[in-house]
Amino acid sequence: MFKRILIANRGEIAMRVFRACREMDIEPVCVYSQADRDALHVQLAEQSYCIGPSRSAESYLNIEAILTVAKATGCDAVHPGYGFLSENADFADACAQAGLTFIGPSGDVIRAMGNKAAARELMQRAGVPVVPGSDGAVEDAQQALEIAESIGYPVLIKAAAGGGGRGMRKVFSPEELESLFEEARSEAVACFGDGEMYLEKLILHPRHIEFQILADREGHVIQLGERDCSIQRRNQKLLEESPSKALTPQLREQMGQAAVTAARAAGYENAGTIEFVLDQAGNFYFIEMNTRIQVEHPVTEMVTGLDLVREQIRIAAGLPLSVSQEDVVLRGHAIECRINAENPSRGFQPCPGRVGFLHLPGGCGVRVDSCLYPGCELPPYYDSLVAKVIVTGSTRLEAIRRMRRSLGELVIEGPETNTDLLHQILYHPDFVRGNYNTGFLDEHMETLLAWSGGEAEKA
């Protein structure tokens, strides 16, 4: 087992990995930017080192600085968390070249699955259902027009190297395709340095269902059930739950097996997520694989009782999975709400600043993953996620009621957050009935903001 692990991240995920290391008697080494010099993970770590200025390009994305600290402190491995360098194949390769274990899949696998067009082709060969669309990359807008004509509108233009909803545009008619294609490609180049695009049939108002998988180097691959991530704004998840009310036992089995097939086809090792869209007729299609731990991984931990970060570390150390597929049983129901420092009534404008009084919820079946403490400063340079409230209950309704109570107890004085919006979602009749899809927020935002005391800013 590893003696010392460098945590190449910040915020709540740095704290999550930090705690897992401590429980495994592994010494965590933390890094931080100048903006994060007073961050919680920095204060708790016995070893923490500044790796650069506030902006992530000069700190959390600085491979040379991170590896210098790792080698100087005698680390055996590097845990990338999520975001930043977690799906950077060059970083995984650089770790290996430096004699460090990258806690995640190999650079080759990250590279293969990171290109959405290539991943789509791989899944087709493996027999995993994919959304109808282009065979590989689309060269230009003219070719995109021809493909769109053959599969029918609406279509979705997507960046092959994309993620987080960037480099993606919905197209409902041929008249708007050319301009939206160039717009999406320009955004892809700016965000990912890669203008390769592909095209898919747009599945209107699907459910977004993802399956957690674990795979070790001995060839064991298991799936840990699904998470329903359909409550989204601008393709960014806000609330996740497991199990999904949309799946029958038979459909769950089919999708879980497809997830395992996808992971095997990729030659995958470590923790990962296979993401699907589920249409209103019950057809599911592969959309992408996330080659890292997910923000919403606690949902799966709550219903399976497994520590996914611990499993990541064990797998990276060469140990076999601690459980078999037969051992995996989903118990009860779990819900996660992402607490973001942002103002929903102003287009989800980020709200950095100093936290004053802070009260986090607790009690039976409540977990909070956070980097907050009274007096901490939320810098403007990074993602607005500041905490995750996760609850479990014996039934879905019990979990909903527990989350309502928990959000009612949450107090973050200072920066504005999306807590009120999340609270109102939990009372909406369609959510309570489980009758929702990825169009839920677009359809109900005005009502939800009115209930929470805000009014959408007119465009």
What is this entry, summarized?
With 459 residues, the protein is α+β, with helices and mostly antiparallel strands. It has helices at residues 11-23, 40-44, 63-72, 89-97, 107-114, 116-126, 141-151, 174-192, 249-265, 297-304, 308-316, 396-409, 419-425, 429-432, 440-451; strands spanning 4-7, 27-33, 47-52, 77-79, 101-102, 155-163, 166-171, 197-201, 207-215, 221-233, 236-242, 270-278, 284-290, 333-340, 342-343, 349-350, 353-354, 358-359, 366-370, 377-378, 385-393, 411-412.
Strand order of the largest sheet: 13-12-9-10-11-14-21-19
Q: How would you classify the helix and strand content by structural class? A: alpha+beta
Tell me the total number of β-strands. 22
CATH H level of the largest domain: which superfamily?
ATP-grasp fold, B domain
**Gross CATH architecture of the largest domain:** 2-Layer Sandwich
Helix count from the secondary structure assignment: 15
Task: Tell me what portion of residues adopts beta-strand conformation.
Answer: 25-35%
The tally of structural domains comes to 3
Uncertain runs: 455-459
Mean pLDDT, all residues? 95
Compute the CA-based radius of gyration.
Answer: 21 Å
CATH class of the largest domain, please? Alpha Beta
Quote the CATH topology of the largest domain.
Answer: D-amino Acid Aminotransferase, Chain A, domain 1
Q: What's the N-to-C terminus distance?
A: 55 Å
Largest sheet: 8 strands, antiparallel
The coarse silhouette is globular
Q: Could you estimate the helical fraction of the residues in percent?
A: 25-40%
